[in-house]
Amino acid sequence: MNTKSFVNYSWITATAIALVASSCGKKDSSRTTGQSYNNPKWGGFANQKYKGQETGPGLVLVEGGAFVMGSTEKELMFNNDNVERKVTVNSFYMDETEVSNLQYREYEYWLQRTFIDYPEVYQGALPDTLCWRSKLAYNEPFVEYYYRHPAYKDYPVVGINWQQANDFAAWRTDRVNEAILDRDKIVKYNITADAQNENNFNTRAYLAGQYEFSKKGKKPLKDYSKAKNKDQKRYKVKMEDGVLLPDYRLPTEAEWEYAAQANIGATQFDNVDQKKIYAWDDYTIRIKDGNEKDRGKIRMNVMRAKGDNGGIAGGNLNDAGFITTPVYSYWPNSYGLYNMTGNVSEWTLDVYRPLSMEDMDQFMPFRGNVYRTVLLDQYGAIEQKDSLGRLVYRDVTAAENANRRNYKKADNIGFKDEENYNDGEMTYEYGVTSMVNNKARVIKGGSWNDRVYWASPGTRRYLDEKQSLSTLGFRCAMIRIGAPIGNSKKKYNRLPTSGIDKKTTRKSRKSATRS
Questions:
Q1: Is the pTM here over 0.90, yes or no?
Q2: What is the pLDDT of residue 434?
Q3: Rounded to a whole number, what is the distance in angstroms from the first to the last CA of the chain?
Q4: What domains does the chain contain, in order, with CATH numbers?
C-alpha cells in the first residue's frame, strides 16, 4: 500500500469514526434538517447507538477478500468444473465446527415439544440413520447407536438432506434472536403453552408485527415518538435498532471454499505467498515441523490409502477415526475452523452447474436465487402466519418487475442455461442423460471415507437435495453486516451464551481427538 492510499484511507476512517461519534450524543441533530434526533419535540426520529454486529453462538468471523476459486490439485476426475477464477466474498461468519448430533437433537427436541398438533414436522426433521447401511458391509451398530448414543453426541450429524439442513438454520436464527431479546431484558422468554404450535417465536413474523411476546422485560427500549410526560417504553424491537442478528444459513460454495483455503496469515501485501493444496502451508497431510509430540501425525480424518480408514492398532492409528471423529478433533485452520478438509463432506447453498466458475459474478458468486416476497391480502396488509407461525411468501412475478434491469422473474437458478430450456423448463433428463438439475446441490470437502484428493478446497461434487449420506454433514454461516472486520478494539466480539459451562467446553476441547 503506497503512502497516498494510506493517507486517504486513514482520512476516510477518521471521518467515519467522527461521524459515528457525533451521531451518538443525546443532543445530536440531523445534518439534513438541523432538527434533533431522539427528541419527542421534533417527532422522535430515532438514531440508535450501534456498536457493530455481535458474533452469534458457535460462529467465527471470517474476514472476506479476494481469492482464486477453483482447482488447486490436478483435476483427477476430468470434469473441468472447477477452473480457476478470481472472485471476492464479503466478510461472513461460519460455524467453528460441523453441527453435532447433540446440537441437532436439541433442534429435534424443540420441534417435538413445540409442534404438539403437527407431529409430522418432527418426523420430517429426523436424520436418515439407514444411510449407514451398505449391501456388503456390517454397519448395523452405527444405524442403531450413532445418532442417539451419548458416546457419539459430539460427532457430526449425518444422514441430513439439504432441506433439513436449511430448516435447522432457520430454526437456529429464531432461537438465537429469541435468546437475545431475553438476555437484553426487553422481553421474557415464555416456554408455556402460549409458545406452542403457530405461537412459537419467528424472527420475520416478529419484525412484521405478526408476533407479540406475552411477558414484558425490565429494560424496554425508548420510544422517542411519545411526549416526555407519557410512557416512552417500547418492547417491540425493529430492524433499525440493530438488536437482532441476521439469518443463520448454509454457506455458499464460494464462502465455504474461501474459509477452507484459509489464506489469512499467508499473504504479503496483495500477494498470496504460496498456492496451497490444503488449508496448511505444506504438500503433505502429515505434520513435518513442530514439536516431537505432533510430528508425523495426520492433520485430518480421511482414508489414507485403499482399505485404510484408521491405521494399525497398537499406538499407530494414523488419524484415530474409523468413521467420523468429534467435531473439535485435529487442528483448526488459520480462521479457527475445525475439520474443513476431512471428517464429513458438507452441504453448501449452491445449485450445481459444471460451468459455475465461468458464469457466476465476481463478487459473492452464487447460483440458486429464487426471489420471493411476502404474501399480502387485497388491502396490501400482510397475510396471517401459516400453521407453523411463519410468514407466507410467494414468487415475484415478471409483471411487477417489468421495469427492473437486474432481474425479471423469480427463478434465476437456470440463468445462462437458456440453451437447456424449453418454455422456461430445463430439459436435462435427470437420471437418464444427466444427473444435474435444479435440485442438485454442491457439496464440498473430503470425508472419513474419501481419499485425500477430496480434501483440497477446490474440489466439488453434488447430490440431490433430498438425499443424504453417512459421509455428509453441514455447518452454518451468517453474513457480516457493516464493517468487514471486528467492532472497535475487539476484532472478534462474542455473544454470551447462557447455559454453556465454559470450563466444560475448554475441557472437552482438550480431550477431543488430536491425532
A1: no
A2: 63
A3: 41
A4: 1-47 (no CATH), 54-157+243-366+445-511 (3.90.1580.10)
